[in-house]
Structure to design on (136 residues):
């Protein structure tokens, strides 16, 4: 659960281990519940480890991404963080460079993620990209 991202991969690993140990297989629903429980526990441990590596300044910067500065600002800076590059013409390129400057100004290091498997980082990134933080 600390290196695999998909529940199906974890279920297959459990089945292989049970077969290797010559144990009776559980019902699929039982395996599914077990895998989701183990996955949640593993992700919570990873989260605590990553947060424990962040400096107070980095935590403050990350918290600020989730807040809107004004009532007229309907989306948080977190939404801006997730913006994808537009077509490569002059105006979008200038905006992309401004976006890069803004990202580099966040002063959030990569040290907190240093020992996480790349597949897991990509998995968490895709989950974060799907989240929406906006003014209610």
């Amino acid at each position: 659960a600390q290196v695999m991202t998909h529940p199906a991969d974890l279920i297959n690993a459990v089945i292989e281990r049970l077969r290797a140990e010559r144990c009776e297989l559980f019902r699929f629903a039982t395996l599914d519940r077990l895998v989701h429980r183990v996955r949640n526990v593993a992700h919570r441990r990873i989260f605590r480890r990553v947060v424990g590596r962040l400096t107070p300044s980095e935590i403050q910067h990350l918290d600020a991404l989730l807040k809107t500065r004004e009532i007229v600002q309907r989306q948080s800076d977190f939404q801006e963080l997730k913006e994808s590059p537009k077509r490569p013409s002059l105006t979008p390129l200038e905006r992309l460079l401004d976006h890069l400057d803004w990202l580099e100004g966040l002063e959030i290091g990569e040290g907190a993620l240093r020992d996480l498997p790349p597949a897991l980082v990509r998995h968490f990134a895709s989950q974060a990209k799907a989240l929406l933080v906006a003014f209610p």
Summary: The first helix runs from residue 7 to 20. The radius of gyration is 20 Å.
